[in-house]
């Protein structure tokens, strides 16, 4: 009898004792968790006969997507607008001015899936894995460690100024819709685009003015070799060469035969001798701040020779060549040829 009484007492205490990490029924946390659970459901078209566009949360892509709802049955993973879907399910974007995901704490989100992700840990300047619940959370949330390191880790060094502007448009891989500006190297213009909230690259600016101040000022340092290709107003179709500072190479364009600008060369060799020599050989050697060491060559103005140096892997200047021959071909064994100025 006493044993039964003790067992009943233990069961009663276990039943009434608070469970760790379990939201209290009816609490805001509990409601939030239950609301978020619909984000883990597979979309259901239903059994009706209508054709209604709706939005659902795609757990695999962690983004809101459109689907067709038939008007009857279905489930809770169904929203009238993308905004409504993102409000409940998507990774929430940063609200601060710089909108850097690297400044945010890790956030597992309210759902209960088990997805391996990576977040940036500011204290140690490293990327650490964590278990993401599948919905909600914030943008300090990366699918791959490499994405996290590229975006956040400081000791990898920073890009050289124009290298950021030269990167291609990258909207990222999350579900947000944030207005930003990027530099279009082909049109030489700063253009508006929507950033998704995570991923992407350094060619992303808060305002058009920020973009122009960063990228246009750098273009000026290239002189005539920084001018955009200009075919001119005439009717001919002549193959010419221009220097592209984004790729640091001479590329083909079509010249109409009149006007245009001075970044216009009859041959590739003329273009390279004028632009690569003027830009690369006249800059000082800089090893850069990173530690991904490799052997490179640079032109030494004092000795008038190409010499070896240890490059750190980021930043530096254009006075940097893969081997001695490339350095000598650009900076020493060349004669000045007339350009199409």
TrEMBL record:
> By its UniProt entry, which Gene3D superfamilies does this protein fall under?
Pancreatic trypsin inhibitor Kunitz domain
Keyword Heme carried by entry: no
Record domain BPTI/Kunitz inhibitor: where? 39-89, 102-152, 165-215, 225-275, 281-331
Keyword Disulfide bond attributed: yes
Recorded hits in InterPro entries, A to Z, give: Kunitz_BPTI, Kunitz_BPTI_sf, Prtase_inh_Kunz-CS, TFPI/VKTCI-like
Q: Mind telling me which SUPFAM superfamilies this protein's record contains?
A: BPTI-like
GO terms assigned for molecular function = serine-type endopeptidase inhibitor activity
Family matches, as Pfam families: Kunitz_BPTI (PF00014)
Q: Where is the signal peptide?
A: 1-17
Enumerate the UniProt keywords alphabetically: Disulfide bond, Protease inhibitor, Serine protease inhibitor, Signal
- What's the protein name? BPTI/Kunitz inhibitor domain-containing protein
């Amino acid at each position: 009898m006493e044993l039964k009484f003790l067992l009943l007492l233990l069961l009663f205490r276990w039943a009434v004792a608070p469970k760790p990490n379990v939201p209290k029924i009816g609490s805001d946390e509990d409601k939030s968790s239950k609301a978020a659970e619909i984000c883990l459901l597979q979309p259901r078209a239903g059994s009706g006969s209508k054709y209604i566009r709706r939005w659902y949360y795609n757990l695999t892509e962690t983004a809101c997507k459109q689907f067709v709802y038939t008007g009857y049955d279905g489930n809770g993973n169904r929203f009238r607008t993308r905004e409504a879907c993102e409000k409940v399910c998507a990774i929430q974007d940063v609200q601060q001015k710089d909108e850097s995901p690297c400044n945010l704490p890790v956030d597992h989100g309210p759902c209960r899936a088990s997805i391996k992700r990576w977040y940036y840990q500011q204290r140690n300047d490293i990327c650490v894995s964590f278990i993401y619940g599948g919905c909600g959370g914030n943008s300090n949330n990366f699918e791959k460690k490499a994405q996290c390191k590229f975006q956040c880790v400081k000791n990898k060094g920073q890009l050289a100024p124009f290298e950021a502007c030269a990167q291609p448009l990258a909207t990222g891989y999350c579900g947000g819709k944030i207005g930003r500006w990027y530099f279009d190297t082909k049109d030489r213009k700063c253009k508006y685009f929507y950033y998704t909230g995570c991923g992407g690259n350094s060619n992303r600016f808060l305002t058009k003015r920020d973009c122009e101040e960063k990228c246009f000022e750098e273009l000026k340092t290239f002189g005539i070799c920084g001018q955009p290709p200009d075919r001119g107003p005439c009717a001919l179709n002549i193959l010419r060469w221009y220097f592209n500072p984004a790729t640091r190479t001479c590329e083909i364009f079509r010249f109409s035969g009149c006007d245009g600008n001075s970044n216009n060369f009859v041959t590739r060799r003329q273009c390279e001798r004028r632009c690569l020599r003027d830009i690369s050989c006249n800059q000082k050697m800089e090893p850069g701040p990173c530690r991904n060491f490799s052997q490179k060559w640079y032109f030494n103005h004092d000795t008038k020779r190409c010499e070896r140096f240890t490059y750190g892997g980021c930043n530096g200047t254009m006075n940097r060549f893969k081997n001695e021959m490339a350095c000598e071909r650009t900076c020493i064994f060349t004669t000045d040829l007339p350009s199409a100025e």
